[in-house]
Protein: Putative membrane protein
Amino acid sequence: MMEKTLRKRLHQVTSRFQERRLGWLLALIAIAFAGLAWGLLPAARAGQIMGSQTAVVLLSVAALSMLVAWAMTRRSFSDPHSIASKIESKFPSLQQRLLTAVSLSLRQENSSGYLQQRVIREACDHSQRHRWTETVPQSQLWISRMSGFSATLVMALMLGMLFVTSSDPSQVGASVTRRNQSDAIVDPGNAEIERNTSLVVTARFESIAPSEAELRVIARDGSEQRLTMKQNLQDPVLAAFLSSVDDDFEYQILTRDWSSQTYSIRVFEFPKLVRSDALLDFPEYTGMDDKRIDDTVRVTAVEGTMLTWYCHLNKPVASATLVEKDGARTPLQPMDRATGDGMVVQLQMEQTKRYTLELVDHEGRKNKYPVELVAKVLPNQSAKIKLTQGGDVSVSPLEELSLAADVADDFGLHRVGISYNFEGEATEIVFDATDTAKRKQRFSHMVEFESLNAKPDQLLAYHFWAEDIGPGGVVRRTQSDMYFAEVRPFEEIYREGEPPPSGQTPPSENEQAAEELAELQKQIINATWRVIRDENGVEVSIEFAKNVKETLEGQLNAIELLAELAAKLSDPESQLIVQGIREHMQTAADKLEKSHQSNTTDTLANALASEQASYAGLLKLRAREFQVTRAQQRSQSSSSSSSSQRQKQLNELELDQDENRYETAQQAEANSPEAAQQRAERQVLSRLRELAQRQEDINKQLAQLQSALELAKTEKEKEEIRRQLKRLREQQQNLLRETDELAERMQSPENQESMQQQREQLEETRENQRRASEALQQEDASSALAAGKRAERDLDELQDEFRQRTSGQFSDAMREMRADAQTLDQKQQRLSEALRAESDNPSPGLRRNEQQQQLENQLDEQRRDLSQLENKMQETVEQAESVEPLLAKELYDSFRNLQQREVDRRLEETSELVKAGFTEEARRSETAATEGVKSLREEIEQAASSILGDETEGLKRAANTLEQLARDLEQEIEEERGEGRRGEGELGEGENGAGQRSPQEEEGQRESEGRSEQSGESSSEQNEGQGQQGQTQGQSEGQGQSSGQSMRPGPNESENESPGRAQAAGQTGLRSATPSQSRVAAQSPSGSPIAGDGFREWSDQLRDVEEMVEDPELRSRASQIRDRAREARTDLLRHSKPPQWNLIEDMIADPLRELQRDVQEEFMRRSAEKNSQVPVDRDPVPSQFSEAVRQYYENLGSGRGQ
Structure:
């Protein structure tokens, strides 16, 4: 009894499962046949099929299908175990009792066991307490019933409509037309297109196209869309345009009396890289943890790092390969399921490589725009040793010599020490490096010569060394240059004497020869030491033989010089010393020769010892007593280090004679920064630019959120704003971390000294960023915006400061690229206007008019120009990657954005649509191309501003500078015309009492002018100011001296001039004209830019204007004005005649004013400042009226003078 009850309960649940399935199957069948009937209605109306017969057939087939569906559902859910499992899932409280009871029922008909009966009874009891039929909810059952019933009604309605539909008798006479239309050519038919691309569907008829037609588009989900097809002019062509296709669909062309077959469009995607992540497993010796960098295509790591690229793709691919430039290919492997979909590859980073990711899908399609992955390898550099105290010195036998050096390594030091050799005895001292992980440390050592029992003319050779861990984990030693400490005798006497005319004490001939030979021998020792130091590998380098040969040639040359010196010596003791030196030199030469022949370093150490002994012997040839004069020191490349050291010691003596206060006028040359320093500054500039841009973006979003927060009314809106503020805080924190990284870069040893001030400014910027982040955490948008604005301003100031310090290596390339992008944008704007005009005023007729043909040609030309610009961008990215990595990144991002916007395809599509006559569709496609070109221009201008600076700011500075230059020149012209010569000496040159130059001055001026003409324009401007300065100094010196006193001439005066000339110059009352005073005078109205002292500064400022403006015409005009001013200045100095001020007005002043006006107009046009004051007569005077205008102003001026 219990088993029957259990089966009954199970049968009720089974019936509900079957009923639900039957309802859904009936609904599906009914909907299918209803759709089929709806699709056949147009054919029935057109008379192509019989509606009544078709409806009967469809009804019969539908009924048969429903009957089959009923039979299938009755046979489904026949397994009691599956029904019991579903009930158990619905009611977990059964605890497997039902499944056990069902199993027992199936195995035994008469289950007489107590346990069996107990299980069945509990299952039955549970069925009474709970409604097992709820395993299939009543709502689902009701929905399936209603769906089946509704779908059946719809099917009946459609079949009824089809049954009563009959053909139109009026269409019987149009059978010929239908036959012609049935031969229409539909393009593209069945095709495959790329996802998110546009599609034009056309139907070309043989004779006359229908007046109305529709494109029926059936999506994959069954939804339908109808588009009206338009006729192209009078051609028998109907067309419809789909702007973007993102999924498969079918389409059909329908007219009143004809319909095409159904075509299918399949959408595909080219494989592409969605995101690439990098995992860096650093070598063990670096002590660095593994690092994962998400969403990057560029990584930088030390050599030996294991790089793992994770490439996430948009679709599964058949193969993925990294292709190097030399053609080497590295395949990628599929990721593990746990890691995610995509491809992965592991690479050992040994040298910098650039990979192109090549993807091929299962249909054989390759990625359209291969992504370039860059793995830059940083070498594990050896330790850097910088001597901070010591060097080549001369010490006494009792002196204590302090030696110190800064030692730095990129991954920490292993051991550091100093080695020295004194009289053949080598000593090595290892310093106590307490913190070996510290990358930079300072070590010092005191050498006590008294404990070494040092004697005069002995030599101590020493060098520092440091050990670090090399790339292979092996200890590597680096050694510094070798330095020498010469032991001088106690009785060396320094006696004060009278200064000779040359300002230096000439040593004796033999002493000079000995010192020169000693200096040569020291260079030979250093050369041998460098070869030993650099050749620390198992095998010698390629340059080894060349270096040893050059050192050997130097040693043989020293032997020859020693022989010449020995021939001049008469002292027996000196001859004996020379003999010992010769033996050591010959021994060193023999060892070097043997090393060169055997191509090994075995004998170099012996050669070095002999060279040091030779050098020690040369020291004994020096004279023991010197008569010296404290003279002015000059940096001369030919002076020996011994003389320099001795002069340094002499400077420390307190000599009684006053300094010679005569100073020579010498041009100060600023040392160019080293290549490494320039590169570091450019790196910092690029990072500052990026940080400033990102801070500006955050501030803009913050300002918008602040306004939205004030206007928010509901709590939901405020919560959304808080969520966005939280995201902005995360961005601000990331910016703060990158600022810390930049500060750490600026604190590196190579940048610490040169960027001290900028680092302090960056610390203030970081504090503002920290305050902004803290305010965002407190949801204080106003305080965060204020702090962010301060940080943005500080970053902009730092950026401008570094831009002025760095060299524009890519200035020409970026200037040309910016001009090309601007030209491309201008042409695109004209194309847009022309296409808009063509769309508003279409031309009738079958043939294309001349304007359409021009549009097609211009579009093709635009595509060619765009392709050329893309090639330039690629070349610049490759060239700037190592020097300007962020410039390369900006250009690379612009290039990728250009490809993603598909500007070239949009232009091609516009050209095809114009050819087909679809002007409206062409305008839509052209609008997208215009936006892409505009964005490209903006991005290139932003990238160019990092190298060239702000073009508008340059124009502004140029306009202000030109205004000042024109004002100075006009004031000089007015003064000279109104007052004449102000007196003698107005031009800043010495004149005699009669107002004429003395013959000596004219001769000196001619000599100065001659040298200026030989040295070129720059030297001319320099020597003009220097000659005046020298004369002034001569006057100052000569005022308190007798006429017979000997004086040294200035640099622009003849060496054999009489001393009286300086005094005569001093007695004429010359004005002092030092360079600093000349610069001040050039900026003031009394600077006299043509006839006075301010010409050089005036010309330099005009030269700066040429660099400020980018327009070639404006730069050429500024150069012409400067050339004319230089010619006028040269004539003034050569002929000693006052300038022709009318000619100056016409040739220099007027063109300068016109240039200033044009630059100001260009600045106003660029900056778009509508409130700027614009002069009424802005246009230049036409050439045919320039003379009349000039006379008008002259008459006006003369009348004012009267």
In short: DSSP finds 31 helices and 30 strands in the chain.
